[in-house]
Design a protein that fits this description.
With about 475 residues, this protein is of the alpha+beta class. It contains 18 helices and 16 strands. It has 3 domains: about 50 residues, no CATH class; about 250 residues, Bira Bifunctional Protein, Domain 2 (BirA Bifunctional Protein, domain 2); about 100 residues, Anticodon-binding domain (Rossmann fold, 3-Layer(aba) Sandwich). The structure holds one RNA strand of 75 nucleotides.
Length: about 475
RNA sequence: GUGGCUAUUGUAUAAUGGUUAUUACUUCGGCUUGUGGAGCCGAUAAUACGGGUUCAAUUCCCGUUAGCCACCCCA
């Protein structure tokens, strides 16, 4: 028994008096709770266990979003010839440190890393691409017809501070095109992501840039650092530090003076090799051809080290100040696979952040038509013990014929069941009572008119099928 | 990781340094025990945690935790 503070005793006693009338049933629960531990405060016995920070349950209330998004992902991936692939949540930590980059924020600050029971350093995947690249090597996919196109869908983990549209476990849908370097492939990926958003009713734009190859970037960085040093006094404190640590990041700074400095800074495009420059022009041509609106953004540099040449991000149209969060992003990673021990294999990919997309969907009422869930509009109500058991069987018979009915077998009052049927928006309710069990019949009630019809149980499937046809007709 | 704001039942809310903490929705039960949509009645359910000030704290103060927002970064 935890020692209650003395000062509290008074109020505790007061409370007992207060709740006298309703405390009888609570008493046993109170006793039970005290056996657990001092912090067990809940009235229901055990201490309630909370969600870990940054984690989120997906409940049936969110189903409409998740299932629709998943369906769109499947449809699109199929339509563009991507095959489903799922790599493990848990990988050897070096996979990510080597691919994403040791000094990136994602790896350095946000990755879940821990020792497995055998002492191996493992990590929860912070994104999909590295795993896909690893799988390409693991399974010798260079012997498959190239390019190998895969898509993936599922949770990824980043130990960031939770915020709007940002969780520690979140979901990504992504596509990877591994094995070729061709502007059309870049454009196709951008298109798939673009259409994904469009199909979900989100009008988005693409911000795009090219960061060339490693050598280009090195040359550019030298130039940029030189420039930034010359303007050092105008920069914010943080950017002053960044000059040495991660100069490309300065380009992203939103501080007023920094923006000014950046606006006149050398642009990476001018430092691209001929090859990269031409390649980028062709990607843009493809996008023009496809009619995808894009914004050239010379300051776009992505935070993952493996990118080269084309990089892009998706943003919702017409969103000004509020959370300039990217909905998704991606790019080319021509050197990643050899870094992971494979043969040189040019590749590209993108990933979409599903939670962010859902938060937009949530804020839009106009999306109801895209996001409708088809529920059965037929309810099965039963009354009496015999009918109760019989109903379970009848529901099963119906299901075998492809007819789904909603029901609540735990409820005994017909009235309560009718209420439920109403809440579900049932067009018809099938009613089975004592009498009907005896007669081998079922009542079919039209919920709009209130008309009832008695049919033979043998003919139930047939009758219900007829009903469903009519419902569909009426809807059309 | 840094800063700002917040914390009352399942949800959304009201109020107060002092008898029983408000209201709505949800859930459950009832209002002719075999019939829904309205109405009415009732039940369940909360002051995040720890400390301090006080005769008395849900209210004021501090700490912790969590949430939101911004930075950072990214999805």
């Amino acid at each position: 028994m935890p020692a209650k503070k003395k000062t509290k005793v008074v109020s505790v006693q007061k409370k007992v008096v207060k709740t006298k009338t309703k405390s009888m049933s609570k008493k046993s629960a109170t006793d039970a709770k005290n056996t657990e531990s001092g912090d067990a405060k809940s009235q229901r016995g055990a201490r309630a266990i909370n969600l870990l920070r940054g984690m989120k349950d997906i409940t049936p209330k969110d189903e409409i979003y998740w299932l629709n998004i998943y369906q769109k992902a499947v449809e699109l991936a199929n339509a563009y010839g991507f095959g489903f692939m799922e790599t493990p949540v848990l990988e050897e930590a070096v996979l990510f440190t080597r691919s994403i980059g040791k000094d990136t924020d994602v790896v350095e600050k946000e990755m879940y890393v821990f020792e497995d029971r055998d002492g191996t350093k493992v990590a929860l995947r912070p994104e999909w691409t590295a795993g896909a690249a690893r799988a390409y090597v693991t399974h010798g996919m260079q012997t498959w017809p190239q390019p190998v196109k895969v898509w993936n869908y599922g949770p990824v983990f980043r130990h960031d501070r939770p915020q709007a549209g940002r969780y520690r476990q979140f979901h990504q849908f992504g596509c990877e095109t591994i094995g070729h370097r061709h502007p059309c492939l870049d454009a196709e990926l951008i298109l798939v992501g673009y259409n994904f958003l469009k199909d979900l009713g989100i009008s988005a734009n693409v911000q795009i840039n090219s960061i060339g190859n490693a050598e280009d970037r090195q040359n550019y960085t030298i130039e940029l650092v030189g420039y930034l040093r010359s303007k050092r006094s105008y920069l914010c404190e943080q950017c002053k530090k960044r000059i040495n640590k991660n100069p490309l990041r300065v380009l992203d700074c939103k501080e007023e003076h920094c923006v000014e400095v950046i606006s006149e800074s050398p642009q990476i495009i001018d430092w691209l090799s001929e090859d990269s420059k031409n390649y980028f022009m062709k990607v843009l041509e493809c996008l023009d051809e496809l009619g995808i609106p894009y914004i050239l953004k010379s300051t776009l540099v992505r935070g993952l080290d493996y990118y080269s040449d084309t990089v892009f991000e998706y943003y919702e149209d017409a969103v000004e100040e509020r959370s300039q969060n990217a909905l998704g992003g991606g790019g080319r990673y021509d050197f990643l696979i050899e870094q992971l021990g494979g043969v040189p294999t040019p590749s590209a990919g993108f990933a979409m952040g599903l939670e962010r997309i859902i938060s937009i969907l949530r804020s839009k009422e106009g999306n109801k038509n895209i996001l409708e869930k088809e529920w059965s509009r037929i309810f099965f109500a039963q009354l009496g013990e015999q009918a109760n058991y019989r109903t379970l069987k009848l529901i099963e018979d119906l299901r075998l014929e492809g007819i789904v009915v909603r029901h609540n077998l735990a409820k005994s009052s017909l009235k309560g069941q009718m209420e439920l049927a109403d809440k579900f928006g049932a067009t018809h309710t099938l009613i089975l009572g004592q009498k009907e069990v005896h007669d081998g019949t079922v009542i079919i009630r039209d919920m709009d008119s209130g008309n009832q019809e008695i049919v033979d149980q043998n003919k139930l499937v047939l009758e219900v099928k007829k009903l469903m046809k009519n419902i569909i007709k009426i809807r059309k």
